[in-house]
Amino acid sequence: MTASPYIVEATKENFADIVQKSQDIPVVVDFWAEWCGPCKQLMPVLAKLADEYQGRFLLAKIDTDAEQELAAHFQIRGIPSVKIIKGGAIVDEFTGVQPEAQIREMLDRHCGEAAPDAAEGGADEDALDPMSEQALAAFAGGQQEGAMQLLTDALDADPSLHSVRTTLAQMQLATGDSDGAQKSLEAVPEEDRDDRHKAISGMFSFAEIVKGSPPAPELEQTLATNPDDSDSRYRLAAWMVLANRVEEAMDNLLTIVQTDRTYGDDAARAALLELFNVVGPKHPLTSEYRRRLARLLN
Fold this sequence. Notes:
Elements: E1 7-9, H1 15-20, E2 27-32, H2 37-52, E3 58-63, H3 68-73, E4 81-86, E5 89-95, H4 100-111, H5 114-120, H6 130-140, H7 144-157, H8 162-174, H9 178-186, H10 195-201, H11 204-210, H12 216-225, H13 230-242, H14 246-259, H15 267-279, H16 284-297
Parallel strand pairs: 1-3, 2-3
Antiparallel strand pairs: 2-4, 4-5
Helix pairs in contact: 6-7, 6-8, 7-8, 8-9, 11-13, 12-13, 13-14, 14-15, 14-16, 15-16
């Protein structure tokens, strides 16, 4: 493949730095392997788009054979697998070869958002502070304990860093510490509670679902042998929400609505509606899955 300034080879050593770039532009992460035929079909399409978009996104390629730790961190089950990271979090993803038009549509949703927000002045209110950006990049790169310690140390030195405190709450929820996340969010004064604070507050219902639950990998193994286990699927969806695997969470909740509507007194539908509120009404996944849910219910 011809060298391109818009394509990088990602490794465990440089991945945190690559994720850091997602604060400025979307990072498209392509998980592939040399033996994978579909990967070789998708690879030139992504490379072509990276050059065509001229720096509107960065394409980061991860060889899953060489970088098994990164593949395990992102729980890659099949390749090619593509995830779009923006602001340190996964905002979109797909698995398998997709039509170029569909990939282009996905890219346009994310590559075109930053500039209009900045022009309107709406991005400044909830802009991440540099400490949060650094910590989220490290967290996404697998350095969870180090990222949280970085924020804790910063708050010990200056308790008025309320954006940092909100970021710490986000990480505490993602690691299952809902009590710690609640305390962190409550410590943020009312006037400093931005949209990010509101979204994280909306995730507590999902944290309650996973209390006392097996970890996500164990639930995935259970579903591999018993796909009709609605309880395991419901709890797995909650773990996915906390890990920013939003589309997968919506897929699992929709599956329960379709196959086992009576589970938990329609708990999956209620959780899906709550998830729509968490990600926001303008998120493309909300629009898509709200339509799919309506088709099932009508």
